Amino acid sequence: xxxxxxxxxxxxxxxxxxxxxxxxxxxxxxxxxxxxxxxxxxxxxxxxxxxxxxxxxxxxxxxxxxxxxxxxxxxxxxxxxxxxxxxxxxxxxxxxxxxxxxxxxxxxxxxxxxxxxxxxxxxxxxxxxxxxxxxxx
Amino acid sequence: xxxxxxxxxxxxxxxxxxxxxxxxxxxxxxxxxxxxxxxxxxxxxxxxxxxxxxxxxxxxxxxxxxxxxxxxxxxxxxxxxxxxxxxxxxxxxxxxxxxxxxxxxxxxxxxxxxxxxxxxxxxxxxxxxxxxxxxxxxxxxxxxxxxxxxxxxxxxxxxxxxxxxxxxxxxxxxxxxxxxxxxxxxxxxxxxxxxxxxxxxxxxxxxxxxxxxxxxxxxxxxxxxxxxxxxxxxxxxxxxxxxxxxxxxxxxxxxxxxxxxxxxxxxxxxxxxxxxxxxxxxxxxxxxxxxxxxxxxxxxxxxxxxxxxxxxxxxxxxxxxxxxxxxxxxxxxxxxxxxxxxxxxxxxxxxxxxxxxxxxxxxxxxxxxxxxxxxxxxxxxxxxxxx
Lengths: 137, 387
Prior knowledge:
Strand content of chain A: 35-45%
Number of strands of chain A: 8
Shape of chain A: globular
Low-confidence stretches of chain B: none
Number of helices of chain B: 14
Structural class of chain B: alpha/beta
Strand order of the largest sheet of chain A: 4-5-6-8-7
Order of helices and strands of chain A: HEEEEEEHEE
Helix content of chain B: 25-40%
Number of domains of chain B: 1
Radius of gyration of chain A: 15 Å
Oligomer: heterodimer
Structural class of chain A: mainly beta
Largest interface: A-B, 35 and 39 residues
Low-confidence stretches of chain A: none
Distance between the termini of chain A: 27 Å
């Protein structure tokens, strides 16, 4: 699976961290970790912004995080008509990363609130595409 | 206080939902309004900075077309872009061209003709306003980005939807009196609270709307300013900063870090503090943004922007009148023109030209201009010589 298949709609076909999409297919949401200084990055980066190294490895974000903020979107951009309404959210994880994404349909239907515990899960979409969303731990 | 570079002329076209002018004609309108018949100032311009967000333009590389429309072909021309703060990027560019000694008098012209795009094209661009690699695939839009800040601010400080509505109530009061504003209807809090939900907690009337328009400034060295005008408005302080385009690399959602940094720089350069500002224009692309801006600028402590607003301190007659021209909410938001329109309002305030919305005795004014949710932030402090 290539990075062009990431998300409901993608705009960037190629990336040195394109393998992120293949990990999604295997059910894993990954961050990158610099092999030289250990700096963890999300979104994943092939080049370390801390030490300049280009050597990185993958590390799964499989812990429970907390919701920092969210918004229910009633008007979406082109390509998201079938998703509406959807909830965009930001959560922080003990690994030291902050992640942006959508809440799962089930979670969006509950009353989301700041501080709510969430986990990341891969989300398989139509047309062989894949994404991730926040789910109940 | 340093007085090395001045704004010697400022103008704009009316902002409208749909203009019947081409982009060159719009820019000419703003240029003509700035010059007020002074051929001498127009002829003294030796460089042009054009500000626009090109994703809205049909014209590729519009700077050359704009120069030609103003009769400035032959001079060096630069195009600058930083989304909605392109105008402030243009002013900073002009300032450094003058301070660097390359030019003496620089025109800064910003425009956007947003109505040239179809609604489908607008919806397509809406989907590319965040980081296209990591955040657009989830359906992030510009309003949703700011809504995430609104939710966090409400959670941290108890800010309510009724508080947000109060920002629009104030802006509509002043937009009604601004003949250059596109949206001049007066609103009550109930109207705003009853408007259609867009991105919770923001509703239709919490959001500024697209507009067509242009604005222009003429910026000059001290020597040129003293030669060309008796009423210069000095650039006392400039601040500029940026922050990550991906929201997942932000530490804070109750404040815009870049705006706080830009404000500190501008205050330090000008040698003044928040209490010295007599009138301010802040980037109210959404109601929440005005509340956060008053906190980031130090007009109120973090979490107290609502109190400042509710006490009427940001209205005419208050401690620090904010957006008494109607702001982006009232004027409409032609992206490349917005920052220059904010600067024009402060120039007019400092020259005592604002009639019914004049802040009496205003001598120091401030402009806060954002690009995206604080991806870019500019704070500019202006001062007049008037007694």
